[in-house]
Specification:
The chain is built from 21 helices and 10 strands. With 657 residues, it is α+β, with helices and mostly antiparallel strands. Strands 2, 3, 4, 5, 6 and 7 form a 6-stranded antiparallel β-sheet that branches. Helix 6 crosses helix 8, helix 10 packs antiparallel against helix 13 and helix 17 runs antiparallel to helix 19. The longest helix has 36 residues.
């Protein structure tokens, strides 16, 4: 019998008590898996390794059951659950009701735990080649993380808390979340956050087991790519959503929650490049362990920021009891991983004392890593400073100018390195290799000439675009060489050429970001029907406004004629949600520019106030992001054998645990 047709009292028992029971069962199984797996790893007991792993699978299964029950409660409008009543109502479209699963504090935490359980199970199923000890320790660490999340869900902030009186309707979803972006951005970025736990667990397991060779790299790299790819998509989707919904004309405001999503991505970007040095040359061992650990610590730090509400942000949840628990969890993770790194520090040096040449592929990767860590430091300090100053009774606001001054030079250097690094050989660069740099230099020169002919005089533009031109020339040079010598090498070495494609996508993103930031024009204007406004050569005519009743909200819609199009920016008021208002932006998109219109207000006489933006090359950001993801996917399909071969090239280094 469908759950929605059951007696209401029995309905509560099934969805409330059974959901809470599933979380509690998962908590017990996760704790058992943690203890048994660590014990099995220390004793190298193969039987208990298997039992510990199966206990983890069982804990993940209980999490999956709890997730299914919460989704059923949402779709059946079971307002006896506080979470359902607080985040949905009867007027919410079904798709957004389902998305309410991760729309609130407790539900999003359950979604995160679900992804952690699923990806953790997949990583353990694929870990047989690493040996029993690493698998056991990785199971124990993953189970410990899962157990912490289940404890928070079962004890501190449960999505299955029952109301003493069942209301006839819920409070409804926040108006900002009543958008199609709700269906794609939160689940992707939360899945990315959860995925960072996989590389962390296997890195720490390798340290515990005394295995510091490249074997853990081969296994971890695949899941690091999953985390990196999900976070890439999550960041881009978040930018797109902010651009289309918030109505401020931009897509990235250096908001604290944006920052904490960016920092793990930067750390993993550095790891994915430096891991090649360890796999090929046996170097940067300590650096790779540190980067993987740093990425996860930044995820936990970001979770504390988001879920404690200690830093003001449009993205954070309200202040709750969850924050202190995540702060304590962060402290435990820092202490655990710090002690491990310190204990193994003596064995993490390069196998040979001969240093690599500064001008080489290894040198380029090291410099790239230093620059990326520098950007992380800049973003971290800008995010933390308001919190630190607030502890001393001061109010310190860190805005976009700080990040632009501090991070822009580092990002420009990274773009330059993107043009030079791929052309350098391993070990040492000779004159033939350096002669190859003529192509990026030519690309930069041609771009500079084009900019000059177009009348561009902005110093930042004259720096950013030639660097992008140089980086694009490098990618095209590498593809041209392959097509001239052996076109089949692109398929055989698809990881390499997939990475080049991702580089090209990053260049396209950089061009879009630079152009939209440096070339944006805006105008605030109040118009009567029939009047026009011109911004950056684009002419818009105001045709009038009207009121529309759209079910759960009322909208004032203004008409703006733009060429043969009619743009309809509007302001929606949700009476059932306390009169909350939301701006609906109207955007006309072309490959060259977006015309972005925001309705700021309407007058009694039929006039309307608008803010009009012209944002050049914004679509290049979304297109470049798609190219990045395509390059990563195409470059890593069927590349498992390459990972295994790279792992075999290094002589395993086993320590006495």
């Amino acid at each position: 019998m469908p759950v929605a047709l059951l007696d209401p009292a029995l309905h509560v028992v099934i969805l409330g008590y059974l959901g809470a029971g599933a979380l509690l069962a998962g908590l017990v199984l996760g704790g058992f898996s943690t203890l048994l797996s660590f014990w099995a790893g220390a004793r190298e007991n193969a039987v208990f390794v298997q039992i510990g792993r199966r206990a983890f699978y069982a804990a993940a299964s209980m999490t999956f059951l709890a997730a299914v029950l919460l989704e059923v409660a949402l779709l059946s409008h079971d307002f006896s659950l506080a979470y359902v009543a607080e985040h949905t109502d009867l007027s919410t479209p079904t798709a957004l009701v389902a998305a309410g699963f991760y729309g609130g504090q407790e539900g999003s935490l359950l979604y995160w735990t679900l992804i952690l359980g699923l990806l953790g199970s997949a990583s353990l199923l694929a870990s047989a080649a690493l040996g029993g000890r690493i698998t056991a320790y990785a199971t124990g660490i993953l189970a410990a993380i899962l157990t912490f999340f289940l404890f928070v869900l079962a004890v501190v902030a449960s999505p299955f808390d029952l109301l003493s009186v069942t209301p006839p309707d819920g409070l409804g979803l926040n108006p900002v979340l009543r958008d199609g972006g709700m269906l794609i951005h939160p689940p992707v970025v939360l899945a990315g956050f959860a995925a960072f736990a996989i590389p962390f667990s296997f890195a720490c397991a390798a340290l515990l087991a005394g295995r510091v060779d490249a074997a853990w790299i081969a296994h971890t790299r695949r899941f690091a790519l999953v985390a990196w790819g999900l976070q890439t998509c999550g960041l881009l989707l978040g930018m797109w959503w902010a651009y289309h919904v918030l109505g401020w004309g931009g897509y990235w405001g250096w908001d604290p929650v944006e920052n904490v999503a960016l920092m793990p991505w930067l750390a993993t970007t550095a790891y994915l490049h430096s891991s090649q040095v360890q796999a090929r040359r046996g170097r940067l061992r300590a650096w790779n362990f540190g980067l993987v650990i740093l990425a996860f610590l930044l995820v936990v730090f970001g979770t504390f920021i988001v879920r404690s509400g200690v830093v003001p942000s449009v993205h954070t949840f309200a202040i709750s009891a969850i924050g202190p628990w995540f702060l304590g969890f962060l402290g435990v993770c820092i202490a655990f991983s710090g002690v491990l790194l310190a204990a193994r520090a003596g064995s993490l040096g390069a196998p040979t004392s001969r240093p690599s040449a500064a001008v080489s592929r290894e040198g380029a990767f090291v410099l790239q890593n230093v620059l990326l860590v520098g950007v992380i430091a800049v973003v971290f300090w800008g995010t933390l400073l308001p919190l630190v100053s607030g502890m001393f009774g001061l109010e310190r606001v860190v805005g976009a100018p700080y990040y632009e001054r501090a991070a822009a030079p580092l990002l420009a250097a990274l773009l330059a390195l993107l043009a030079v690094g791929p052309l350098l050989p391993w070990r040492r660069a000779g004159r033939p290799s350096l002669r190859a740099l003529r192509w990026p230099v030519a690309g930069a020169a041609v771009t500079l000439v084009v900019l000059g002919a177009a009348g561009v005089r902005s110093v930042p533009a004259l720096l950013a675009f030639p660097l992008a031109g140089a980086a694009a020339a490098t990618v095209l040079t590498e593809y041209g060489r392959a097509l001239r010598r052996d076109p089949g090498s692109i398929v055989r070495s698809r990881r390499r050429y997939g990475a080049y494609l991702a580089h090209l996508g990053l260049v396209v993103v950089a061009v879009g970001v630079a152009a939209s930031h440096l070339g944006q024009q805006e105008k605030d204007v109040t118009l009567a029907p029939g009047q026009q406004v011109t911004v950056a050569g684009y002419v818009l005519t105001y045709t009038g406004s009207e009121r529309r009743d759209d079910g759960d909200h009322t909208s004032f819609v203004a008409g703006m004629r733009f060429g043969d199009q009619t743009l309809e920016p509007s302001r929606a008021t949700y009476v059932g949600l306390g009169g909350q208002a939301l701006t609906h932006v109207a955007i006309s998109t072309t490959p060259l520019a977006d015309v972005y219109v925001v309705l700021a207000g309407t007058g009694e006489d039929g006039s309307a106030t608008f803010r009009v933006f012209v944002n050049p090359l914004v679509t290049w950001i979304w297109a470049g992001g798609a190219v990045i993801v395509l390059g990563v996917v195409l470059g890593n399909l069927g590349e498992r054998s390459v990972d295994a071969e790279l792992a075999r090239r290094r002589v395993p280094v086993t320590l006495t645990a």
